[in-house]
Amino acid sequence: MRIGCPKEVKPQEFRVGLTPFAAAEAILRGHDVLIETGAGLGAGFTDDDYTAIGAQIAPDAKSVFDVAELVIKVKEPQAPERAMLREGQVLFTYLHLAPDAAQTRDLLASGVTSIAYETVTDARGGLPLLAPMSEVAGRLAPQVGSWALQKANGGRGVLMGGVPGVRPANVVIIGGGVVGAAAARVAVGMGANVTVMDRSVPRLSYLDDIFMGKLTTQYASAAATAELVQTADMVIGAVLIPGAAAPKLVSRAQLSTMPQGAVLVDVAIDQGGCFETSRATTHQDPVYEVDGIVHYCVANMPGAVARTSTQALGNATLPFLLALAGKGWRQAIRDDAHLRAGLSTHQGRLTSPPVGEALGIEAVTPDQLLAG
Ligand SMILES: NC(=O)c1ccc[n+]([C@@H]2O[C@H](COP(=O)([O-])OP(=O)(O)OC[C@H]3O[C@@H](n4cnc5c(N)ncnc54)[C@H](O)[C@@H]3O)[C@@H](O)[C@H]2O)c1
C-alpha cells in the first residue's frame, strides 16, 4: 500500500505522523512510504533519515495527498488539507470531531475513510493512542512546574527536593490516572513530598501499591482539596471525566489560602481546566499569575518535547498502521474491535454516534456500516 505522511501545518505542531522507525517497519512489509520534505524536522528527523530506510520524499503536501492510499498524521487535518482528501483514501490521525463541526462536514464531504486515534480502545478499557501523550504531559508537569516555582519565573523559590535540613516542596496531584501517575513518578523522583488525590478508591489503592510508601494518597473530597492546597507549593490538575468538561476543583477564592508564588499546572486545560482561574496558554507564553499564584496551562504540552512525543506516538500507532496497510481498512477493523472503535467517517457517512449526538448529525455505528 502507498502510505503518505505530510508535514503538520497546525501552528506550533512539531510532531510528525510517521517516524523513520515506523516507516522502516512498513517498508519491510512491502509498502511504499512517501514523506513530505521536512516533515520530520521538528522532531529531529531529516529527509536523509527517511531516505536511508527506503522512503521517498515528496516536494509538497499535495504530492503526498494525491498518491497516498493511507495518510498518517498527528493533528486533525486543517482546512487546506481537508480539501485534498478523497473517497477511497484512509486518514489515520487525531480528529477530535465532537467540538468541530466544520472539520466533520469537510471529512464527510470528501468521502474519506477516517479513523481517529483518540477513540481507538484497548482490552483494558483504555485509550492506547491517547495514553502516550498523557504519559508525556504527566512527566512534563512537575518539570515545567518546578521551572515556574523558581523565583525569576514568578514562583515562590522552592526547590522540589529541598536540601538536607530543608523540607522538599509539597506537590498535590489531583487525578491519579495516566497523567497523574506519570506526574507522581517524576515528582517523587525529584524528591518532592507528593500527595495524589482521586475519586476512585481502587485507583488510589493501585497507586499506593506501586509507589510503596513514596507518596501519600488522599480521597479527593472538596474538603480535603481545600485543606491540601493551603500548604501546596505546586498543584497539578490531572482529572478527566470522559466526554465532559473538567470539573472546577480549586476556586478563585481558594487561591488566597495558598502560599504566595505557589504554582498551578493545569494539565486538564484541554478539557477546559480544573481550576476556576485556568485559561489556555501556549509554549511561547506558558505562565500567568492570578492573585499571586502562578498558572501553567499549556493545552498541547507534548509539543514541548516533540521528539519524545513523536516516538511515543509512533510506537503506539505502529501495530494499527501495519494492520491498516497490510489488510486494508475494512478487514483490519473487522478483525480488531479496538481499531473499529476509531472509525469516524466513511464515504460521507458519520460512523461515530457520540460525534453525531454532539453535532446533531445522523450516525451509524462502525458495526452497522460493516453489516450494511
Ligand atoms: N495539556 C495537555 O497537553 C494534555 C496532554 C495529555 C492529556 N491531557 C489531559 O489530562 C487529563 C487527564 O488525562 P488522563 O489520561 O490522566 O485521564 P485518566 O482517565 O487516565 O485519569 C483521570 C483521573 O481523574 C480522576 N477523576 C475524575 N474526576 C475526579 C475528581 N473530581 N477528583 C479527583 N479525581 C478525579 C479519575 O478517577 C481518573 O483516575 C485529561 O483532561 C487529558 O485530556 C492534557
TrEMBL record:
SUPFAM superfamilies, alphabetized: Formate/glycerate dehydrogenase catalytic domain-like, NAD(P)-binding Rossmann-fold domains
> What reaction(s) does this enzyme catalyze?
L-alanine + NAD(+) + H2O = pyruvate + NH4(+) + NADH + H(+)
Q: Does the keyword Oxidoreductase apply?
A: yes
Pfam families in the cross-refs: AlaDh_PNT_C, AlaDh_PNT_N
- Report domain Alanine dehydrogenase/pyridine nucleotide transhydrogenase N-terminal positions: 4-137
Q: What Enzyme Commission number(s) appear in the record?
A: 1.4.1.1
Q: What InterPro entries does the database record attribute to this sequence?
A: Ala_DH, Ala_DH/PNT_CS2, AlaDH/PNT_N, AlaDH/PNT_NAD(H)-bd, NAD(P)-bd_dom_sf
Alanine dehydrogenase/pyridine nucleotide transhydrogenase NAD(H)-binding domain ranges (all copies): 149-297
GO MF, any single term: alanine dehydrogenase activity
According to UniProt, the name of this protein is: Alanine dehydrogenase
Which species is this UniProt entry from? Paracoccus spongiarum
Q: What is the lineage of its organism?
A: Bacteria, Pseudomonadati, Pseudomonadota, Alphaproteobacteria, Rhodobacterales
State the gene name recorded for this protein: ald
